[in-house]
Each structure stands twice: as structure tokens, then as C-alpha cells.
What does this fold into?
Amino acid sequence: MPIAPTLALVDEAQRRGYAVPAVNIADDLSARAVIAAADGARSPVILQTSVKTVRSIGARHLSRLVHSAAEEATVPVALHLDHCPDRAVITEVLAEGWSSVLFDASDRPLDVAWRETAEVVREAHAAGAAVESEIENIVGVEDGVGSDEALHSYSVEQLVEVARDTGTDLLAPALGTAHGLYTADPVLRVDRVESLRALSDLPVVLHGGTGLRDEDFRAFIAAGVSKINISTALKLAYMRTAKQHLDECERTGRWEPVKMFDAVLVAVRDEIATHIEVFGSSRDAAGAAA
It folds into this structure.
């Protein structure tokens, strides 16, 4: 299938009451593993790329490998740029066929975030892409972007006002979650999702999903979240499996990279498959392709 429009997948999820898994990939191997999980579960999926990954691999090469993998998929696959405060990178990926971008303006004062979000929305819409907006920061640093301190916080009314004025397509509010691994139980704000959904039909995105319990995910989805981001869980499955394989290579003296790749693919595929089951997205992949 060709790359799917992110907003169509999320709108369908919102209408049907599930959440689309949005998974941060690091390379071709992780992209194929995530798509394999989605194919196996008949689920739509959003492949996300960090700014760091775009800079490491290159936007053109990364776009080609994701488009190639998506062509072989039997389910809709979208391509999203995660947490990007750098507008030059946004311009670069839009030119290479990303279907959506997260403009992270959470480090800017409200007036600047408001103005620049509107500018990014105009640019992305002209390229046929959607915009996810974050103007209040979700705590935690992910791939070098973010802050461990809450820099800006706004009322749900302010978030909706800015989103409506700028033409934002998806909203990434602070919901009590954090990027990375939790060192203490988070204070989750399911109530904020309910308040946002009472004020607007804008899709709400949950960041910082790794480490939440199944019942936490289901509560957020029931409240109206229709896109859930997963990054750290993939990294852990990828790197721990690679380490286990390398430890075994050291023990046996047999060094076979392809076997390590195979083991990593299976581990990442199985990890993402468990999230797909919890998110409820496996039930209607075909309908999400519209």
C-alpha cells in the first residue's frame, strides 16, 4: 500500500473507539518489525521518526525505506515526524513525503508558539500533510528533544483556542505521562482528555505510553485518545535482544549478524503486537484505509 494519511487513520480510530499505535522506529529493521506486527494483527500503524533518526539516516533515504516497506504491507501505514522544534527539518521531511509532523513549540512563549504553529500548519497542509501540535511540554527528554521540567501549561480552553485558530489537526496535551521510563507512578490526567473532547472533535494524542498499565491505556482510549505513541518499549526490546545475542556470541565464539537481526525483529514485532492488542486497533484495519 502507498503511505496512508495520518489524519484518516486517527479519525477512523476516533470514530470507532480505538487508538492507532504510533511507533518510533530507528532503522529499516525496526520499521519492518513494526509493520510485521501490524500486518499480523490487521492493524493500521503510524511509523514515527525522531529528528535524531532523520539526521542520522537522512530524510530521503529514510523516506524511501519506509515507503518501500509500506508498499509490501497489507494494512495502512502512515509516516510521522515526532517532536520537532526545528522548522527546517519539518520543511525537509514534508518534501520527502511524510504524512504528518509534530511541531513541538513547547519551548516557546505562547504568542510565539501560536504564530509559528499557524505557519507550520499552512506549510504542511500545502504539502498534503497533517500537523500535530504541542505547545505545553510533556515532561521528559526523547532523542534529545524535550525537558524534564514543566515549562508551559495551559487550560484546555486555551489549547482548543490555539488549535482552532492555527488549523491544527491533532492535539498533544500534557496528560500526566512522561517520555522514557517511569521512576514513580505517574498522576494520569484522563479527565483532561474528557474535557478536551467535550470542547472539540480534534484527535487527542497520548505521549509517554511506555510503562503504563493496560487499564491505563484503556481508560485513555475510552476518554477519547485515538493515537498513542510508543518509543521506549521498542528501544528496550531492540537493545536488550541485541545484547543477549551478543553475549551469546561472546560465549560461543559464533558471530552471525543476520541471526541477531532476526532475533531483534521477532522481539520488536512481539512487543508492538502486545500494544496493538491493548489499543484495540486490530479489529478494523481495512476500514482505516479509507
User: Anything to note?
Assistant: Residues 71 and 156 are 39 Å apart (CA to CA).
